[in-house]
Every structure is written in structure tokens, then in C-alpha cells.
TrEMBL record:
Family matches, as Pfam families: RNase_T (PF00929)
This protein's name: Exonuclease domain-containing protein
Domain annotation Exonuclease: ranges: 8-181
Signal sequence residues: none
Gene source species: Sphingomonas rustica
Length: 255
């Protein structure tokens, strides 16, 4: 009898013709699984993979300059609807899907293709767990944290689907060994909780260090992550919670 296959969280990365479906389409999907071992620790599982996809529209020079996938590279590749479901929905083993800044992948990986899967956003979770990072991009986290076991060449080139999924999977593994699956999913459903102010006279300061007047101005910012963070700090000052990532700020009534 073959050994039982463990439940997995599948990390997904997409390369696309642009950021706004249906005007833009997927030209490559990559994946890497993370599984809970018998020792109670999460680890990368399997080899992962990638698949080129015919996006059904031409590549722009701007997007080609990012991932270097050309029209001729995908001309004979299968369509997205023929590729996506088996990769996104390895039923019944999959617990959730994950991606760095998962809101981008979720635009293309619709509930119909994922069987309504929960998503973990490793960017939002990094904001909570690793607040001292100088930045929170996939690659900055890679070189700041230096995840154990990450093979440098296997994680290159950046901005291709499998290498990016492979790097993200190391971040997810370490997050899962610090916090529960349920907690990471919960954080991922909320806007990002930013550790530092992004712009203006207080740029770079922790939110706990800015004056009340400055904080008030951020409560109506156009960026939902800034509004959420400012509201969380506002509630903290009123005695309603803590801004640190380990505290249950997600329980606040933000209406």
C-alpha cells in the first residue's frame, strides 16, 4: 500500500499579461506545496511545478519585461480553464491556497476554479509576524530572513511562477510554525496591518509613535491598509486593543 499523502497548503504564483482580468490573462502558473509532518512541524512537500498558459491575448512590452515570457513562448500552450482547476484544486488533500499578496492571484483564481478555497496572504501575515523587516516583498523577506533550506538557484529567476512560489513556500512554512492555519487565514481576510507609516512627515515611524492629529488624518486615507492600521491604532489608544501582530486586533469592531 502506498504511503498516505498528507494534507497540503498549496502556494500559487501567477505571471500574467496585466493586473486586471478579464482584460488580462494568465501566462504561467507555478506551485509549491507545504505539509504538516509527523513531527508536528510544517515543511515543503514535493517538487512543485509550473505550467505555461496561452493567455489568449498579446503580451505587452511592459509585462514581458518583468517575466520575460513572450507571445511565441505560450502560443502552443493550453488555455487557463484547461490548466487551472487540477492545479488549484488537488481535492481532497488541499487545506488552503497561499500566495504573496494573494489578492492578485485571487482575481484570476476564482472560487469556481478553487472550489471556494480559503487563501493565506503571506504578505499580510509577514506584516504581523515579522514587523522588523525593512520591507515585505517576497524577495526582500528572502534575503532578510534567509529561510533555512532555501536553495538559491532554485528560487531564481525572480518574477517567474515556480521560483516565486518556491520562495513564498519557505515564508509560509515558517509562518505556519509560528501561528495556526486558522490565524493566518483570519489575518489574510483583513486589510494589511502596517508596522510603519508609509508616507508624509511621519514616514518610517511606528504607528504608536505618531501624534493624534497625524493619526486622525490617516483614518480617511484612500488606501484600505492605511485606514485599517490607523483605525487599529486609534482603538488601541482608546483602550480597545494592541497594534502588535501577536494580539487579537482582528476582534475589534471597526465599523
Amino acid at each position: 500500500m502506498p504511503p498516505r499523502q498528507p494534507s497540503i497548503i498549496r502556494v500559487i504564483d501567477l505571471e500574467t499579461t496585466g493586473a486586471s482580468p478579464p482584460a488580462h490573462g494568465v501566462c504561467e502558473i507555478g506551485w509549491q506545496d507545504v505539509a504538516l509532518g509527523e513531527d508536528g512541524r510544517w515543511a515543503l512537500f514535493g517538487d512543485g511545478g509550473n505550467h505555461l498558459v496561452n493567455p489568449g491575448r498579446p503580451m505587452s512590452p511592459i509585462t514581458t519585461a518583468i517575466h520575460h515570457i513572450r507571445d511565441e513562448d505560450v502560443a502552443d500552450s493550453p488555455w487557463w480553464h484547461d490548466v487551472a482547476r487540477p492545479i488549484l484544486d488537488p481535492w481532497p488533500r488541499r487545506i488552503a491556497l497561499a500566495a504573496h499578496r494573494a489578492s492578485f492571484e485571487e482575481q484570476f483564481c476564482t472560487p469556481a476554479l478553487t472550489r471556494g478555497a480559503d487563501w493565506i496572504c503571506t504578505w499580510k501575515c509577514a506584516l504581523r509576524l515579522w514587523q522588523d523587516s525593512p520591507s515585505f516583498s517576497n524577495q526582500v523577506l528572502r534575503y532578510w530572513r534567509k529561510p533555512e533550506g532555501l536553495e538559491h538557484e532554485r528560487g531564481l529567476p525572480a518574477h517567474r511562477a515556480f521560483p516565486d512560489a518556491y520562495v513564498t513556500a519557505h515564508h509560509l512554512r515558517d509562518m505556519l510554525n509560528e501561528a495556526s492555519v486558522a490565524q493566518l487565514i483570519e489575518w489574510s481576510k483583513l486589510p494589511g496591518l502596517l508596522p510603519r507609516v508609509r508616507y508624509g512627515p511621519d514616514r518610517g515611524k511606528e504607528w504608536t509613535a505618531i501624534e493624534d492629529e497625524s493619526l486622525q488624518g490617516f483614518l480617511t486615507d484612500r488606501d484600505e491598509d492605511i485606514r485599517f492600521t490607523a483605525r487599529t491604532e486609534y482603538e488601541r489608544r482608546r483602550g480597545g486593543g494592541q497594534i502588535r501582530g501577536s494580539d487579537p486586533v482582528w476582534q475589534l469592531d471597526l465599523e
